[in-house]
């Protein structure tokens, strides 16, 4: 059975581990007299910036390394546990993150070297019964395109990322996967790949990586002696990310600028994934926003043990970028992964051998197995030597052997074999030989146990295991004691911050809606004010036309006394029916029998529908008036009295219209003869004896004017005339309508426009005035 190299080492917290590494000042920075503003305290695992927005704020990580720390020390302290996990069958990822020129490639180069050493040291000292198959791929993401760094040219357009529920994310389309047997071979391949990788000089880094590079080592292990013969597969991603950069600082242009845009885009996608994962709460994680995040899907929030190395520059000119890196790094610590040992993966290459081994075991145990044939599959993988064509043929020959695909375990008949001990022994020897052949083939393909005889390597391996065990325990303790709580608090803070951001956004929307509403309300209010102003202006214009003493003249008082009637939905005006509001009646001689007392409801105060109905009253009066006009002889003395009563209602506009309609009917008015032709058909002569004598009482021009609505019409409107003034001497109220003066009965008057519009309306002068209306006014 496969040995568990370091039990307990990986039973640690599943959070992504984050280490910060601060590089030394570069020659250029020293020449430019840059100041170091990053301080790192490895003992407390903290890092802080002496300048910038978070001055004095200290960030805590799983490990921190200052400029003096060697890459080897960094690897041993934080990197080796990931590689150890891969040996156990876990997925592991190490990636370096940070701005351009902060030492990512420098760190990852050292890590790759150390990780390969570590892996092959472990496999070479593994127990004899454990075989490993190591496969290597080297992939580049350049301008969002995948490129195989183990092949020169060609297939980058065919490479595609695919997702599979079992396999996770994988590259389809012919990514070269090479079997590797030792660290040196791997280092050579990595070197070749690095040469194919896009790099260029920028202002900030003479050899700036212009792409993300992902070196993947897949390690399958099989325990050939165990009962189960299970296959485990660990996968290690070593990722050197391109650095984030600001165009202004790198001076990127042309291709460099395009690369920088693509780099920044994928790094911001990575940042978003980290933020979403750190916030938790089932938030959508935008893995699909870039190829990089799709590829690292398992490593961030999935089935992997992950280490992030946040690289920072110590220089004050990079303080802003360093702060951003520290913030992302602190967030990444909150990401929870779910690593599991990958047991018996369906697509394991060693699985075919596993199946054959199991079958072999059964055959050997079965008494009827003598004639069985053991078939070994043709390997579908490329050996590292294929990269060098010279040795390819030799390798194939080595692997295939002579008819190596078919092994005959035993072709002899089984009958009576039990009785023949010699035959039985021969048979057993053959079985053993077959098993050895299977193992030989496996050995040719796989690795394991090569350095078992090397005491030095074994001691080294043992030391590492012990140290890793101690480290795992320490990490476990720290994550349980402080960091667990810190992660929790940070997670809560993050989700609170997110909630606040969402609320702030909503508040902004509501503010905009409120501003809209306010604007429309303001507009409505302005419109209402304008209408109110119009009503006020109309009132003011009407006031001079009201007779003196009319309470409506005091608009302010009416307003103050008015009350709102909710049932009617109207204003209830004060009672205006007092005597003072009535127009003085003409002298008794002119009065007709008093009409039935109908109190005009000018103020909505009547509850009785008929009593308070202005329109019905109006209609009645109109009907009566009509009758008087149409039925009563025009020369009867009575009509004047009736007409005097018209003054009571002379404000009623529709009444005026009615009267005008009658006037319109009068085709002609013969002023000289005093004959009024009605409708052109009949005419009646006004009999002087029947002419109405002018009233003895002084008739106010208002009344006269209103009488004139039939016989002496003056204007209803005073707009064409100068404003009326009161007679100071006599105290006579000012005439409401112009055109009539005290000493001059009839002056040329302005006819109301409405009357002028009537074609047949006669122009009235004093001479044309009927005798009955001519009389002393004053
Ligand atoms: N820890 C370190 N010790 C000494 N030198 C370092 C260290 N880290 C980085 N350097 C040097 O700093 C320079 C920039 O480093 P590197 O190329 O690794 O940066 P980078 O982050 O990969 O940049 P880019 O993102 O542009 O590829 C290199 O010359 C490298 O040798």
From TrEMBL:
List all Low complexity biased stretches: 672-699
Q: Which InterPro entries match?
A: Kinesin-like_fam (IPR027640), Kinesin_motor_CS (IPR019821), Kinesin_motor_dom (IPR001752), Kinesin_motor_dom_sf (IPR036961), P-loop_NTPase (IPR027417)
Composition-biased stretches, type Pro residues, lie in 584-597
Q: Which UniProt keywords apply?
A: ATP-binding, Coiled coil, Cytoplasm, Cytoskeleton, Microtubule, Motor protein, Nucleotide-binding
Which chain positions lie within coiled-coil regions?
Answer: 458-527
Q: Please give the Gene3D superfamilies that the UniProt record associates with this protein.
A: Kinesin motor domain (3.40.850.10)
Q: Which PROSITE patterns match?
A: KINESIN_MOTOR_1 (PS00411), KINESIN_MOTOR_2 (PS50067)
Q: Which Gene Ontology cellular-component terms appear in the entry?
A: microtubule; microtubule associated complex
Q: Which GO terms describe its biological process?
A: microtubule-based movement; mitotic spindle organization; spindle elongation
Domain Kinesin motor intervals: 15-335
Any idea which positions bind ATP?
98-105
SMART domains in alphabetical order: KISc
Basic and acidic residues bias located where?
417-431, 598-609
Main location per UniProt?
cytoplasm
Task: Report the Pfam families cross-referenced here.
Answer: Kinesin
What are the boundaries of the region Disordered? Answer: 406-431, 576-639, 669-699, 715-735
Q: What is this protein called?
A: Kinesin-like protein
Q: Which organism is it from?
A: Nasonia vitripennis
Q: Upper taxonomic classification of the species?
A: Eukaryota, Metazoa, Ecdysozoa, Arthropoda, Hexapoda
